[in-house]
Amino acid sequence: MHEESGAHINISKGNCPGRIITLAGPANTIFTAFAVIMDKPEEDFSSSMTNSTAAS
Q1: How is the chain split into domains, by residue range?
Q2: Is 36 helix (H, G, I), strand (E, B) or coil?
Q3: Left (φ > 0), alpha (ψ -120 to 50) or beta: where does 53 sit?
Q4: Residues 38 and 21 sit within 8 Å (Cβ to Cβ)
Q5: What does the record give under GO molecular function (predicted)?
Q6: Sorting pLDDT into bands at 50, 70 and 90, what band is 25?
Q7: What's the CA gap between 24 and 6, in Å, rounded?
Q8: Cα–Cα distances in Å, from 19 out to 10, 14, 28, 54?
Q9: Fold of the CATH domain 2-55
Q10: What is residue 40's predicted lDDT score, i.e. its pLDDT?
């Protein structure tokens, strides 16, 4: 995500489902990082649906 956006991204460690994400850098890189992060769950969901369909 860092390479794609240019922003510094820090994701808190832990086993909890909720994590704190800190973005730092120029505003345009933060907006890009935010967009990449928001698309990630959708990609993961699509990927899991494809994998579960292939396994069926």
Answers
A1: 2-55
A2: helix
A3: alpha
A4: no
A5: RNA binding
A6: very high
A7: 9
A8: 10, 7, 23, 31
A9: Ribosomal Protein S8; Chain: A, domain 1 (3.30.1370)
A10: 76
